[in-house]
Structures are given as structure tokens and as C-alpha cells.
Design a protein that fits this description.
Chain lengths: 112, 115
């Protein structure tokens, strides 16, 4: 069963604009992670936020987590054409089993 | 570090044939995951191992699917007999959990087509 649901399913923006993707989940979590997938490739880890954290930054990425709403957002600032990819959130439940469940993903297109 | 290595990259087979997918995790990682990705169902966790022991195989769709991890550096996912609905991209991923939560490192996948 899918734990995370991303919103929107697809997003198209111009280079230089910011892109925001959202993720909702259903159960208590230990941590939430964001991954990126380029066409024809495996997923690449971007950032991890723990359940006791509210915000994290990594370069042009900003992730927020609201455990009361069971939601997270990924913001990519000053987007580039090279950011074109699919973005997935993944959650590890609070039982700390190591099991990661992925959402359906958001497909981002950044137009040059 | 060579990353997670999967083979083959592409596999085309006929319905009823046996298919074996292979994975070499990153050295030192203690978790190994097999995922399947399709347009309809997204990324599904099939099975995962911790220290070579299967922990959760509840995602394995049917008895036609089996996975093994005979040692820390090798795992296989076998489908016997294969069916057209098994067509998908199969990913292997490994992680080292430690105390910080596990970050998954993915291979580039095996694209399976069953005709």
C-alpha cells in the first residue's frame, strides 16, 4: 500500500522559478525522505528530515515537515532545466523497521 | 564506490520462462531492498533483507516470485514462470541504517518485458 501521496502529479515551470511539491502520509513516521529520479535511472536521495525536525535546507532545496498534518513539502528555488525529473517522498514508519514506502511522485518539467 | 549494481539492464523474455534479476549492494550496507516500478502502481516494495535475512516479503505479489540473499554482496529476484503483467522496472537498493535512518542507494534497474 502507498504511504505517501504527492501533489501535484505534474508541474511545469520556467527556469528561474521556484517549484513546490507536497507529500501527505497516513501513519506516524520515524523520518521522511525525498528522492529524485531522472528518466531511465534509479532514484537518488536528496534529503532526509526526522520526525522531530520541522525544516531542513540543502543547497537550493528546502524541506518542511508538519507531523500534525502528516505532510511535507519540497521547495526547489531558482530552478534549472537540469532539475527536470520525477520527485518522490518516502516514509519510514515510527516502528523503525528500516522499511521505506514511496509515494507516486511528482513529475517536474523546467523549461529553459 | 561503484554503487549498487544490477544486471541485466534489460531483459526480454516469453511468458512462462524463468527470469533471474541480480543485485550487488554497496559494500558494508546492511539492508537490501527490491522494488518494482510501473506507471500504474508506482514504486512497490517487494521484499527487504537485513544482514542477509528476509525481514518483510509481504509485497511479493505471488508464489511465482522469490528472492534470496546468500551473502552480503549478492541478491537475486526470481520470477518463475513469468507473465506479461510482470513487465516493469525492477530496482534494487541498499542502505546502511546506523542511528540516522537509512538513505537508500538505488541501482539503475532492470527493465523486464514479458511477451
Amino acid at each position: 500500500s502507498q504511504q505517501g501521496e504527492e501533489d501535484p502529479q505534474a508541474l511545469s515551470i520556467q527556469e528561474g522559478e521556484n517549484a513546490t511539491m507536497n507529500c501527505s502520509y497516513k501513519t506516524s513516521i520515524n523520518n521522511l525522505q525525498w528522492y529524485r529520479q531522472n528518466s531511465g535511472r534509479g532514484l537518488v536521495h536528496l534529503i532526509l528530515i526526522r520526525s522531530n525536525e520541522r525544516e531542513k535546507h540543502s543547497g537550493r532545496l528546502r524541506v518542511t515537515l508538519d507531523t500534525s498534518k502528516k505532510s511535507s513539502s519540497l521547495l526547489i528555488t531558482a530552478s534549472r532545466a537540469a532539475d527536470t525529473a520525477s520527485y518522490f517522498c518516502a516514509t519510514e514508519r515510527s516502528s523503525n523497521t528500516g522499511k521505506l514506502i514511496f509515494g507516486q511522485g511528482t513529475t517536474l518539467q523546467v523549461k529553459p | 564506490d561503484a554503487g549498487v549494481i544490477q544486471s541485466p539492464r534489460h531483459e526480454v523474455t516469453e511468458m512462462g520462462q524463468e527470469v533471474t534479476l541480480r543485485c550487488k549492494p554497496i559494500s558494508g550496507h546492511d539492508y537490501l531492498f527490491w522494488y518494482r516500478q510501473t506507471m500504474m502502481r508506482g514504486l512497490e516494495l517487494l521484499i527487504y533483507f537485513n544482514n542477509n535475512v528476509p525481514i518483510d516479503d509481504s509485497g511479493m505479489p505471488e508464489d511465482r516470485f522469490s528472492a534470496k540473499m546468500p551473502n552480503a554482496s549478492f541478491s537475486t529476484l526470481k520470477i518463475q514462470p513469468s507473465e506479461p503483467r510482470d513487465s516493469a522496472v525492477y530496482f534494487c537498493a541498499s542502505s546502511l541504517r546506523g542511528t540516522g535512518g537509512g538513505l537508500l542507494h538505488f541501482g539503475n534497474g532492470t527493465r523486464l518485458t514479458v511477451t
